[in-house]
Amino acid sequence: MMRMVRRSNPSKNMQILMRAGSVVAALAAAALLMAALGYNPFLVYYNMVAGSFGTAYRLQATIHKVIPLLVLSLGIAVAFKMKFWNIGAEGQMAMGGFGAAYAALKYGALPPYILLPLMFVLGMICGGIWGVIPAILKVKLGTNETLVTLMLNYIALRWLTYLQYGPWKVGGFPRIPDFSPNAVLPSLFGIHIGWMVAVLLTAAVYVMLRRTKLGYEIAVLGESESTARYAGINVSKVTIVAMLISGAVCGLAGMMQTSAVEKTLTEQFTGGLGFTAVITTWLARLSPIGMIGTSFAFAMLIQGGGYLETTMSISSKMADVLQGVIIFFVLGCDFFIQYKIQLRKPVRKGGEAK
Amino acid sequence: MDAYVEMKEIRKSFGSVAANNDASLSVELGEIHALLGENGSGKSTLVNMLAGIYSPDSGSIFIGGRTVSFAAPKEAIDCGIGMVHQHFKLVDVFTAKENIAAGREKGFWLRGRRLSEKIQAIADKYGLAIDPDKKVYDMSVGEKQTVEIVKMLYRGANVLILDEPTAVLTPQETKVLFQILKNMKQHGCAIILITHKLREVMEISDRVTVLRKGETIGTVRTKDTTPRALTEMMVGRPLELKIERVRAEPAMEPILTVGRLSAADSHGRNVLKDISFVLRGGEILGVAGIAGSGQKELCEVLAGLYKANGGRVRFLGEEILGLSPREILRRGISMSFVPEDRLGMGLVAGMDITSNVLLRSFQKDGGFFLDLPGGRKKAERIVKRYDISTPSVDHVLKDLSGGNIQKVLLGREVELNPKLLITAYPVRGLDIGASYHIYDILNAQKKAGVAVLFIGEDLDVLLQLCDRLMVIHGGRIMGIVDPLTTSKEEVGLLMLGQSEKGGNAK
């Protein structure tokens, strides 16, 4: 008979090893699936890697995905640290893009050194507002933040659709005009300077969560609200401030994506990155450093998946399947870190009782 | 007589921790067998293996001469082994009989009447009082325990294991339970009683098995031993079992004045009603009562964590009722609070010791950043002063033992140098040595002029440690008595709501 036995104290090394093992297992399982579909899995994997890193252009495209994923993950991590399940990064990013686009379209003539900061500020404010709404609703009315943040995504995305098909449409096509060059983020080493913002932000969030009083308060609140109240922490204020930061950082990702990559606002510019970022955050166990790695991995999956479509005419949905398999295995791995399956050992036979 | 239950050379480890290492137990039918040991000595692990909850790594278990090996509690109960856990496993919204039948009845329908008759027959046989149709949420703790016992008997148990059954009972309820156990013994059942209360062992058991650090130290006949000898077996060294009552002159000016304090729960029921008392510096005021009589609410109202709906709380003349913990802190009210729920309220289980030490003081430090170096120093001082065993102050709190966790909490609160120290069940779950260490700390605080409010559960301790003892029942004060002139039975009656004059106060 099998039974589950709790592991007493899984060591750090073992945990890392098990996680790495689960990714390998996921790749192997996905390979079986590909083989069953008639593709050579090694070729698929090779093409995915080649598609993400093969040429300077592809590498650039991959990094263009890493940047928003990383920034969104950082924003989400602030909320998750508080066990505030913010799955509204998609909407906060969309609103950030909206704020930035508003400045870019309205004040396109301003010089970049004024316009870009203005776009940053407006993007963060709009994202921040989108983050604060569920926080206020939770604090005042006790609503469930998972539902509210999720629903706010759809409102934000439909708002962009409305703009694109309505007031911001120019000409016959439902299309928002391109930003003026003044509103486009400059590049450094061939990649828009958003990468520098992302690096600085990683350090900032790391320090904020581990060294500041606010980060400490967020962590205590995440562990136990009773403890937070006992310690004299202003629970409402911390909840709202943390979500303001979380939403603003996600809004920042939206600003950079519209300004540097799309160079306009479209209804699909978020492209599900806000949801993928929930996964990268979680898989990195909220560690800002870890998120650099998970963001790279998932950017590779997205980029490589797109490349498969052109080279091997495999649907890019294959990459989605692979994403799903990896998540399944890594999350499943958490169970095996906590428990082990034990075949029931027969109790050592003793002699008959006297 | 042959042993009916026999456990031999049992070993069981959880990871690298050996909970049982060469433990044995041998119990006969028709005896009450006490299993004695400090917390962490492996008592619960040992009986959990007998009850089929864990399986041993090695060793053998015999029931009635036959080797057995249980994979699940159900297999144990089929062999006649029933266990009553410390935390009852009952469904609140079910009646007694539904709980008793749950999971055992064959067929689709509950046969209500026949079930009631059967339950009544069992209850009559052993002298238990039970109402099969009463819902569990309407029951007192004692009644719930009775349901648990009947549940096991109904399932055919003739070996009954009770895990610290008296921890939640009043002295009067304990007497009833002991009478039931004696009846069962007369009917040929074997009873294994886990406890760390020596007085009970001496009173009811026929034999005692003492465990220490997972090993069986020995089994003795109760009538051939003394509490002192048992303690030595338990602790491994002679121990002076007397709490010192430190003499201190209480100050004239009260530190805390509570007047006509009332509070209600979310259903509008009174949890505190007209509570009035004063607490001076240099004294320990004990609070005794059945669990859930308002102790938790009283502490939390004083600390600003629970809303009162009337009355006043003055701290050195300043009204503090209605202030949040944050405002209390801001105003510099020098109050420390060791809450009952250590890991859920007093501490952060997932953080290291340093972060936990910072919890109550970080707001006072200026600036944007957390004072980690300062917190570290403070944590190291507390670890040293309170003899906390941990590899380092970076160790995550929940990995420490219960006693060490409590010392971190108490140490942090005492190091705040409070004028008022509120402690709720500070020794719950601690072993004897650690408990006495905590009493020493409280006495030292009293000597230093601190006003100490001590919520306790062991009446022996309350009567020995406190200068005055406030007994509450159903959120009301039944009396504030002098421990020197009051007997445990008198306190027990007050706890049950009988006023000093003998009438019922309700």
Notes on the structure:
The complex is a heterodimer of chains A (354) and B (506). With 354 residues, chain A is mostly helical. Chain A has a domain of 214 residues. Helices cover 71% and strands 4% of the residues of chain A. Chain A is built from 13 helices and four strands. In chain A, the strands form two sheets. A two-stranded antiparallel ribbon of chain A has the order 1-4. Chain A has a two-stranded antiparallel sheet with strand order 2-3. In chain A, a hairpin with a 2-residue loop joins strand 2 and strand 3. In chain A, helix 4 runs antiparallel to helix 5, helix 4 packs across helix 10 and helix 5 crosses helix 6. The longest helix of chain A has 30 residues. Chain A is globular, with a radius of gyration of 23 Å. Chain A starts with a strand and ends in an 11-residue tail after the last strand. The C terminus of chain A is likely disordered. By secondary structure, chain B is of the alpha/beta class. Chain B folds into three domains: 231 residues, P-loop containing nucleotide triphosphate hydrolases (Rossmann fold, 3-Layer(aba) Sandwich), CATH 3.40.50; 182 residues, P-loop containing nucleotide triphosphate hydrolases (Rossmann fold); 69 residues, no CATH class. Chain B has 17 helices and 20 strands. A six-stranded mixed sheet of chain B has the order 6-7-8-3-9-10, sandwiched between helices. At the A-B interface, helix 8 and helix 9 of A face strand 1, strand 4, helix 10 and helix 11 of B.
- Stretches of chain A where pLDDT is under 50 for at least 5 consecutive residues are 346-354
Report the total helices of chain A: 13
How much helix is in the residues of chain B?
25-40%
Strand arrangement, major sheet of chain A? 1-4
- Roughly what percent helix of chain A? over 70%
CATH third-level topology of the largest domain in chain B? Rossmann fold
Largest interface (CB < 8 Å): A-B, 34 and 53 residues
Oligomer: heterodimer
Q: What is the CATH C-level name of the largest domain in chain B?
A: Alpha Beta
Over the alpha carbons, how many angstroms does the gyration radius of chain A reach? Answer: 23 Å
Percent strand of chain A equals: under 5%
Mind describing the biggest β-sheet of chain B? 6 strands, mixed
In the predicted model, the low-confidence regions of chain B spanning at least 5 consecutive residues are: 501-506
Indicate the overall shape of chain A.
Answer: globular
- Which radius of gyration of chain B do the C-alpha atoms yield? 24 Å
Proportion in β-strands of chain B? 15-25%
